[in-house]
């Protein structure tokens, strides 16, 4: 590939003239423009896109920020992989690159975000793993950089978010278990400050009341969002007297550890403890007995996130006065055997 200086040297004219010809400026003669374009095609001229973007104040890239130390963000989980793949297709159609922004455990998410913003890596950002009080949202609102949050937070008053319908899933999960005669229900939520844990817990407790059951805060278990968290959960459930007869999991990989713990104790998942998982994933399909789970259209979610960010970028000069949210539904209600 040839740069603009080599192209100008080849033609024997100034870099300025070549630049104006390539950018179709009106002060360049038609013959000169034709000569420059012909030479550019012959020599394989490629513009310095980063330089152009810098002058325009654009990078033609957007960032997908996630926490690399979050057990729910890797370890074989297909959630982000499916969402990112779909979002990337939307951005690619508009000649925009999707860049992964992994925040490691040795840095706070807001400090990492500030570094990325200061370096002008991207034109817009998709935030994930929103916390109850998320300083990233308040920071991005102040900077005016277009962003969309995958998840809600009590922070911020003027941002776009898309979140899973945890309330609907908790309501349907409790209704399903109550319909099968379960009266003592437990729920497992992340031990982190992830906002989804608070939303799911509150919806679960409300759903108990709606179904004529007594809310029991001591049956709300905070564990790691991983297989190990599920194993820890099994020990806590078995220590309760009387023991819960059913549990609703906010993270599907907990089920792997939970099944293991129950079986080690001589109990059978599904018979001795009914289990419903929030989301179906490839990993839990191999559990026996089968784990009742909700389904999610992850590809649709990724496309919706991408389009929402494109809208925010297009309207970045129009100040947002209020937050705008959307609940992404769970599909295919689970069935208990």
TrEMBL record:
Every HTH lacI-type domain range: 2-56
UniProt-listed SMART domains: HTH_LACI (SM00354)
Pfam families named among the record's database cross-references: LacI, Peripla_BP_3
Keywords, in A-Z order: DNA-binding, Plasmid, Transcription, Transcription regulation
TM regions (residue ranges): none
Gene3D superfamilies listed in its UniProt record: 3.40.50.2300, lambda repressor-like DNA-binding domains
Keyword Transcription regulation among UniProt keywords: yes
Domain of life: Bacteria
InterPro entries: HTH_LacI, LacI/GalR-like_sensor, Lambda_DNA-bd_dom_sf, Peripla_BP_I
GO molecular function, one term: DNA-binding transcription factor activity
PANTHER family with a match to the protein in the record: HTH-TYPE TRANSCRIPTIONAL REGULATOR GALS (PTHR30146:SF109), LACI-RELATED TRANSCRIPTIONAL REPRESSOR (PTHR30146)
Protein name: LacI family transcriptional regulator
Organism: Qingshengfaniella alkalisoli
């Amino acid at each position: 590939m040839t740069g603009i200086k080599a192209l100008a040297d080849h033609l024997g004219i100034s870099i300025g003239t070549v630049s104006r010809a390539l950018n179709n400026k009106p002060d360049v003669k038609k013959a000169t423009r034709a000569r420059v374009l012909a030479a550019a095609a012959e020599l394989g001229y490629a513009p310095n896109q980063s330089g152009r973007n810098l002058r325009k104040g654009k990078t033609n890239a957007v960032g997908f920020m996630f926490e690399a130390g979050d057990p729910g963000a890797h370890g074989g989980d297909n959630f982000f992989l499916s969402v990112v793949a779909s979002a990337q297709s939307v951005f690619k159609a508009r000649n925009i690159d999707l860049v992964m922004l992994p925040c490691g455990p040795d840095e706070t998410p807001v400090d990492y975000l500030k570094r990325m913003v200061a370096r002008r890596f991207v034109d817009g950002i998709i935030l994930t793993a929103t916390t109850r009080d998320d300083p990233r949202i308040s920071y991005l609102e102040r900077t005016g950089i277009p962003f969309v949050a995958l998840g809600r937070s009590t922070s911020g008053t003027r941002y776009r978010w898309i979140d899973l319908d945890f309330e609907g899933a908790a309501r349907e999960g409790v209704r399903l278990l109550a319909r099968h005669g379960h009266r003592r229900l437990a729920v497992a939520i992340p031990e982190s400050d992830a906002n989804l844990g608070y939303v799911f817990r509150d919806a679960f407790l409300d759903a108990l009341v709606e179904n004529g059951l007594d809310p029991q805060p001591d049956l709300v278990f905070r564990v790691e969002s991983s297989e190990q968290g599920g194993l820890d959960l099994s020990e806590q459930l078995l220590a309760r007297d009387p023991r819960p007869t059913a549990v609703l999991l906010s993270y599907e990989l907990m089920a792997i550890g939970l099944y293991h713990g129950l079986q080690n104790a001589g109990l059978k998942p599904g018979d001795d403890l009914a289990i419903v998982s929030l989301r179906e994933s490839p990993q839990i399909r191999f559990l026996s007995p089968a784990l009742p789970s909700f389904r999610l259209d992850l590809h649709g979610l990724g496309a919706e996130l991408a389009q929402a960010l494109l809208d925010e970028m297009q309207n970045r000069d129009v100040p947002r006065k209020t937050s705008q949210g959307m609940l992404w539904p769970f599909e295919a209600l689970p069935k208990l055997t």
